[in-house]
Records
---
Amino acid sequence: MADPAAQGHVELEGTGKFYYPSGATYEGQWKLLNPPPPPPAEEPKEVKKKKGKDEPPPPPAEPPKRVRHGKGLYQEGDYVYEGEFFEDVIQGQGTFTYASGAKYIGEWKANKYHGKGTYIWPDGRKYEGLWEENRMHGLGVFIDASGHAWEGQFFNGSGPGLTALV
């Protein structure tokens, strides 16, 4: 059987490790965006004759690029994200741990906390509930550093009218 690489075969997805100029690393699943098109078939002579000499060439295609796609681990210094990516964007389920020790565990959309998730501060405070565009938004429970719990509707990051849970 012939070698696929010798026949111009290009891997469209796989697993591996990426190294970034910043020193960051990614290890996990990837996919190839803008794969090279298959070689054109030979056109019949009559089609070649009909094309005008002044016809501009087609625009160049975007170069192929391997991107994070699927599950993986991204680390940059003391910042760590482990979870799902979609075409190089954090999307799906994942956990982000900050250098401070703070942590977000939950759903992501377009690199932002979005959906159901939990944020834990280094001092022990915790919010568990709904998020929208990186803000506490919707039904949730906030537990302060003393362990007192507050429940209610959060709007754009704040919780007016929260009820203390006893």
---
Amino acid sequence: MKKALITGITGQDGSYLAELLLHKGYEVHGIIRRASTFNTRRIDHIYHDPHNNGEKVNLHLHYGDVATSDTLLDVIYNIRPEEIYHLAAQSHVRVSFDMPEYTGDVTGLGTIRILEAIRKSSSNARFYQASSSEMFGGAKPPQNEETRFEPRSPYAAAKVYAYWVTRNYREGYNMFATNGILFNHESPRRGETFVTRKITRAVAAIKAGKQEHLYLGNLDSRRDWGYAPEYVEAMWMILQQEKPNDYVIGTGEAHTVREFLNEAFSYVDLDWNDYVKIDPRYFRPTEVDYLLADASRSRNLLKWEPRVHFHELVRIMMDADLELTGLTPPGEGKKILNERFGGWHRWESQVVSMER
């Protein structure tokens, strides 16, 4: 049984990755931050209490923080995982302008703390660094592994640092250290302050008569939006390769926030112009206008292809948020998900994990 360690296991990607690895027969370990409230809602449906007699437990949680080195070294040394997926970060781009120092510490230096823990513990673990398309910033689209980075936020700059130290440890210490440069990937488990989920939650609430308006910033930003469960499959594929490398993961299709609004509102027969208001507070000091993936390397080497595209993604997210709001969704998103995925990924785990 392979062992895998996931930082950021309680996040969107971490929860889907944990599901995938458990389905593949892994023993999964996750690092979570200590809090006075429960913060594990995305993984509650796959977590089993180790005190239950006779129940086999393959998911284990450990308190720790990527802002400190000691716990990282202890966990890696004691577990001896074959694979480490580093997903933890302060990952909200707009918030990084308000908390630049914290973002640099957690998102940037957190990566080198884990790499050092791997090196000092003499671990042979394969390492995955969650890099971001935000690193490309102002670079002309489409962007691939050879595109020059032009970060336009503290978050993006921190991710560029993490990208280069990962490559440095790969070349300097002969580590199996990789970067997955993931373009925007969304799902019903996306954090409520990210624009896609903010939109789908608001549409459901407006349809239910619980909300009057939705306040947003720049509607003209173009993004390459994919479906998160497919992207964690790519993470796993990256660590199964014979040699370490860096990979861009994306759909090769870009849409504006305005288009996302239109798709979401029209799904429930509403006109977004009647409900959306612009709030300057949501504009970034420096905007990223256009991100579009050239994922040729992933298609050729990983044989990875997206199965869910933009219009289908919106429907999946809308069905989940309508269901959470207590409404009966049209069901197109649920049908798409159940047709495209089998085994480890089910509609029930999309919604149940968010009920608390």
